[in-house]
Amino acid sequence: MLFNSYIFIFLFLPLALAGYFLLNRLGRNKLAQAFLIGMSLWFYAYFNLSYLPIICLSILGNYLISRLLNRQGLEQKWRKLLLALGILANVAAIGYYKYFDFFLSNLNALFHADFSLRHIVLPLGISFFTFQQISYLVDSYRGETGDYGFLEYALFVSFFPQLVAGPIVLHSEMIPQFRDPELRRFDWGSFAHGLFLFSVGLGKKVLLADVLGQAVDYGYAGLDRLYALSSLDVILVSLCYTFQIYFDFSGYCDMATGICRMFHMRLPQNFDSPYRAVSISDYWRRWHMSLGRFLRTYIYFPLGGSRKGTVRTYLNTMAIFLVSGIWHGANWTFILWGALHGLLSCLTRAVDRWWSRWNDWVRRILTFLTINGLFVLFRADSVMTAVRYLVRMMRLESFTLDRQILAFFDTAELQFLEYLFPALSRLPAQIPGLHLFLFLIGSFLIVMFGKNTWQMAEKLSAGRGLATLALLSCSILALSGVHIFLYFNF
User: Which residues are the active-site residues?
Assistant: First the structure.
C-alpha cells in the first residue's frame, strides 16, 4: 500500500489510529499491539499476498535466534555460531530474492552459459527489514536487547510507517516507546505535528517528485531517446532526477515520521539537507542517515574503523560503500556507484586540510555537481548507458530543448503557483522552457536554503496549520497520477 493513495489516507490510516488508541484506552495494550501488527501486515501484503509468508517467517526466525542468544549459560562458541548463522540466513534471503538472477545473468555472460533466470519478484522492503533484524541479532549477542516479547519484536520489525523504505530503526528507539503508557494515549499536539509532517512529505512526493519523474522517465527511455536529445536536455534530465530522488525519499521519510507522530511516537531523523554538503563524506552524514549509521555501527567499526592505520581505514571505508552499492540494487551500476562514492570519500579524507580551505559555497556546488553526475550512473539501466549519457552531457553538442520535456512542466501545479504568486503569470510566456527552469530553480532553492521539515515542525502556528490543510488538499487532488516511491525498489 502506498502512503500517497486514497485507500491509505481515507481508510487505512484512520482505521489504524482509531483501533490502536481505542484498544489502549480500554486497557488492552497487548491487543492494541497485535492489532497494529495485523494492520502493518495488511499494509505490506496489499499489492502482493505472496510477500506475507516471507516477512512472517523472517520475523519468527530472527526472534527465535535472538531468544537463544539471550539464554543464560549458553557457551560463547555456540553464541558466536548462532549469530553467524542468523546473519548468514538474513544475507542469504536478500541474496536470493534480490541478486539470484543478477548472479545467473553474469555467469551466462562470462561463461557463455544458458542458465534460466527465475525472474524472482523482489519482496517490498526486504533490504530495510532485514538490515533492521541483523542489527537486532548483533545487539542480542551483545546482551543489549533485554526481555522483549514476541509482540514487541514483531511490531518493531513490521510497524508500517517505516516498514518498506525506512528509516532503519534500532530496538532501543522503538520498543521503549511501545512500552511507555503515556505514549499509548492520543495526543492532539503530537497529531498536529504528525499531520504537518505528513502533508509536507505528501506535497514533496506528489507536487514535486512526481512531476520531475515524468521528465526523468522520458529522458531515460533508452538509447534512441538519448540520441534524440540535446546535451542541454540530458543535463536538465539529470538535474530532474537529482531533485526527484531527493523529494521522493525525503518526502517518504517526512510522511513516515508524520504518521509515527500521529501515533504519539517518534522515528529517528533520516535527512539533514544533504545537498548542502561540502564534501562527499559530509553528504553521507546527511543522506539516508539511518543506513549510514547501520553501515558504521555494524560493519565499519567491527572491521576496525579508523583505529588500525591509514590503509585499513581506506579499505574499511571502501567496504561499507561497496555494501551500500550492492544493497541498493542488483546491477553493476549500483556497485560502481558505491565504489566511486567510496573512492571520493577516501580522497576527501586524504586532502581534507587542503579541501577545507576552500570557500564553503565553492565546495558545496562542486559536491552537488559530483552527486548529480553519479546519480546518472545510479539511474541508468547499465554502465555503458550511463557512460553514453555522461559523454552526451559533457560534449555540449547542442542546446535545443525537447518539447515533450517542457510539456511535463506546464501542469496544474504550476498554474496554482501562478495563482498564488501573480508575478509569475506576468513573465513572458514565449520564453522557451520557462516553467521547467522555474521548477528547477525553485527545487535548487528549496534544497539549498529551505528548512528541513522536522525543523519547520518545531514551531507550529495557526497560519502554518492553514497552509498544511491547503497543501494536503492540493496533494490529494493530484493523487490521480500516483507513482511508487523510488526507494521501494531498493
Answer: 328
